[in-house]
Specification:
The chain is mainly α. The chain is built from seven helices and five strands, in the order αβαααβαααβββ. The protein is about 35% helix and about 10% strand. Strands 4-3-5 form a three-stranded antiparallel beta sheet, with no helix packed on it. A hairpin with a 5-residue loop joins strand 3 and strand 4. Bound molecules: iron/sulfur cluster. Its EC number is 1.8.7.2.
Amino acid sequence: MTNKNISKEEVDNLYNRLVISAKKRGYFLNHDENYAKNIVRGLLFNEKRYGYRSCPCRLASGVRAEDLDIICPCYYRDADVAEFGACVCRLYVSQKVYESKEVIKSIPERRPKKEFSPKADQPLAERFKNMPNEIKQPNHLSYPVWRCQVCGYICARDQAPGICSICGAAGERFSRFI
Ligand code: SF4
């Protein structure tokens, strides 16, 4: 893969936007700016290649619907930052890692090997199956519930929001929860 078609200006622009957005939402980019910019370059390259910013550290299928979980920020970022101090690419790090400038070497892959399936929510539906109707469907639960696959934000409304109000992920990255 070559990143030669991505200009320094494009990288700087996206990097600066990510820094601002991360600060607003309590996230931290890798303190090593050169390293972080290389990852940003990879994101831009994938955007040119596939039409979306799939994770530069993972193999994308090239089919957006199949790669939704690895469009940056991926569904695994928050869990990896919480458990290992950084996401797989080490673009996002925990506050502790950011402040200590600790160098995180490698993060185990959390993405399931099997194709991501919305059936992951099935146990919850199963639990609701045996509940009395008045509990199962009181008025405030008459809306479908949507869950952001990136940060876990949950909201009940007719349709998934256009953008996650917590992490800023696009609406397509919500899945029906209940
Ligand atoms: S948040 Fe996920 S997609 Fe984005 S750079 Fe990190 S590992 Fe890759």
